[in-house]
Amino acid sequence: MFKIFIVEDDPWYGEILQYHLGLNPDYEVTLLKTGKECLLQLQHKPDLVTIDFSLPDLNGEELFKKIKAQQPNLPVIVISAQDKVTTAVSLLKLGVDDYLVKDDHTKDLLWKSIIRIRENLSLKEEISELKAELKTKYDYANTIIGSSAAIKQVFRLIDKAAASTINVSITGETGTGKELVAKAVHYHSARSQQAFVAVNMAAIPKELVESELFGYEKGAFTGAQQRKTGKFEDANGGTLFLDEIGEMDLGIQSKLLRVLQEKELHRLGGNIRVKLDFRLVVATHKNLAEEVRKGNLREDLYYRIAGLPIMLPPLRDRREDILLLAHYFLKAYSKENKLPEYKLSTDARRKLLQYPFPGNVRELKAAVELAAVMSDQQQIEAADITFMSDVSRDPLEGKEMTLREYTRLIIKNYLTRYHDNVVLVAEKLDIGRSTIYKMMQKGEIE
């Protein structure tokens, strides 16, 4: 039952409100005549209080303050014969949930106000529950979605990594979410208030790797107009995440090993020793032990970076998480695009569960977002779902398209979603900005 106190010194008017609200069987309505009586009855924990502004013993503002002193979160509605705007504004600024003027519409307005307050209370309870969940052992679920045994094992390893200073090595197929795990380790560790610096070793040209990691002094090489700190220094006090560590050149590996051993470096072209304090997290889709056997990775470096190994399972090995992830991505897509939430039909769910997802979570995300784009309704059908590796399927109901036309469709969708921010879209799609600009110049994209 939802307990409501009505504080009204006019018995006739109070009984009208009590009768009107009592029509809802979920409401337990109690009529009180004075402010002092209300304060004494607060021990019975009402869910909402309505108070007359002009009571014989306390005015509305005085009673409101006393109520809040006892129960700060208790919703209060003030009902007054005064229609002064200044009074209403003053009370609303103090935190009154609503201010109603006594007239022929008061009963209906009160009814609607209580419904709104109940909805807000329900929302606050949900938020409180969610916050409590995020503080539990598996609070990484707000970024790493899943409830399977395989992903829970990953959560357990994240807990152990976050509670220590040990280096961490994350392995897994492309698209399994290695950077998300690296961030989870960092943001739940003692270094969470410091920088998280991510470097994709596969994306840096070989000749620039050293200057990117170690930094350089002015005049160190042609074009070095001023001193620049490297990624090691940028991560000082925090976490350095080296993605695709298996792509690192052997020459750079020896220099990385020295930094890890000495906890210091010299910028290119400089003699000053720079002291370092960072936590190293590495990731790769390769088997690091196998890379050592092949001679692609120094054995001594391997033992330095291996630390606590976290192996991310491919999506095909955690199939019970597929629909959970799909619903999460669809909800996020709907929110980003300010659309009603999409649902999956039974056949669509079956199709997702039967697919092996060689591209893992990243491929699932792309598939459900494209399905939302192609769907003509808020329920996604199996025919709306196209997998990039499934060449037999066509997202436009049999209409043949070239790869460039598919690219154009996807880029247009992302430009719409991110308000024509070319830089952000290029980053999201992992393509060059010039690709988008050239398509614009040719009139392929507006």
TrEMBL record:
<keyword id="KW-0238">DNA-binding</keyword>
<dbReference type="InterPro" id="IPR009057">
    <property type="entry name" value="Homeodomain-like_sf"/>
</dbReference>
<dbReference type="InterPro" id="IPR002078">
    <property type="entry name" value="Sigma_54_int"/>
</dbReference>
<dbReference type="Pfam" id="PF00072">
    <property type="entry name" value="Response_reg"/>
</dbReference>
<dbReference type="InterPro" id="IPR011006">
    <property type="entry name" value="CheY-like_superfamily"/>
</dbReference>
<feature type="modified residue" description="4-aspartylphosphate">
    <location>
        <position position="52"/>
    </location>
</feature>
<keyword id="KW-0804">Transcription</keyword>
<keyword id="KW-0805">Transcription regulation</keyword>
<dbReference type="InterPro" id="IPR025943">
    <property type="entry name" value="Sigma_54_int_dom_ATP-bd_2"/>
</dbReference>
<dbReference type="InterPro" id="IPR003593">
    <property type="entry name" value="AAA+_ATPase"/>
</dbReference>
<keyword id="KW-0547">Nucleotide-binding</keyword>
<dbReference type="InterPro" id="IPR058031">
    <property type="entry name" value="AAA_lid_NorR"/>
</dbReference>
<dbReference type="GO" id="GO:0003677">
    <property type="term" value="F:DNA binding"/>
</dbReference>
<dbReference type="InterPro" id="IPR025944">
    <property type="entry name" value="Sigma_54_int_dom_CS"/>
</dbReference>
<feature type="domain" description="Response regulatory">
    <location>
        <begin position="3"/>
        <end position="117"/>
    </location>
</feature>
<dbReference type="InterPro" id="IPR001789">
    <property type="entry name" value="Sig_transdc_resp-reg_receiver"/>
</dbReference>
<keyword id="KW-0067">ATP-binding</keyword>
<keyword id="KW-0597">Phosphoprotein</keyword>
<feature type="domain" description="Sigma-54 factor interaction">
    <location>
        <begin position="144"/>
        <end position="373"/>
    </location>
</feature>
<dbReference type="Pfam" id="PF00158">
    <property type="entry name" value="Sigma54_activat"/>
</dbReference>
<protein>
    <submittedName>
        <fullName>DNA-binding transcriptional response regulator, NtrC family, contains REC, AAA-type ATPase, and a Fis-type DNA-binding domains</fullName>
    </submittedName>
</protein>
<dbReference type="Pfam" id="PF25601">
    <property type="entry name" value="AAA_lid_14"/>
</dbReference>
<dbReference type="GO" id="GO:0006355">
    <property type="term" value="P:regulation of DNA-templated transcription"/>
</dbReference>
<dbReference type="GO" id="GO:0000160">
    <property type="term" value="P:phosphorelay signal transduction system"/>
</dbReference>
<dbReference type="InterPro" id="IPR027417">
    <property type="entry name" value="P-loop_NTPase"/>
</dbReference>
<dbReference type="GO" id="GO:0005524">
    <property type="term" value="F:ATP binding"/>
</dbReference>
